[in-house]
Amino acid sequence: MEIKMAFGQVSQSFAAKPPTQLADQITTMTSAPGHKRSQHLIEREAYRRIMSGELPESLGEFTRQLLDWFRQIHPGASSITLEMIENRIRETWHRRHELIRGG
After folding, report:
1. How many helices (H) and strands (E) does the chain have?
2. Which of 42, 89, 83, 37 lies closest to 66, judged by CA?
3. Buried-most residue among 16, 33, 75, 80 (CB within 10 A)?
């Protein structure tokens, strides 16, 4: 599907893309102002691990595991630091027992 404007067709780069291509495009954005970071990927994986019980003893170790996972699975994604990850998942980490119980 292509988008048409009053002055003709928009280039093919603006044509509708399959969802998988859009997801790839989002994860490769930079951390420049106005751009999404890849933190949503980390949050989703943190939640998945918490719900499955794949947890280390400390938040620091959990953060390191998530960063290692992120760098391995999404090598082309925008960079993220341990501090960013820890700040983003801290509340979820502290609520982990409540989440697992379904509260």
Report:
1. 5, 2
2. 42
3. 80
pLDDT at 103: 59
Determine contact, residues 3/15, Cβ cutoff 8 Å: yes
The dihedral through the CA atoms of 87, 91, 96, 102 has a sign that is negative
In the block, residue with structure tokens 């291509």: 21
CA dihedral 55→60→65→66, nearest 10 degrees, is 100
CA–CA separation, 33 and 90 (whole Å): 23
DSSP states of 21-59 as a string?
Answer: HHHHHHHT--SSTTS--SHHHHHHHHHHHHHHT---SSH
Identify the residue whose tokens are 């994986």.
45
pLDDT of residue 30: 53
What are the beta bridge partners of residue 8?
Answer: 5
Q: What is the value of pTM for the model shown?
A: 0.65
Tell me the pLDDT band of 34, cut-offs 50, 70 and 90: very low
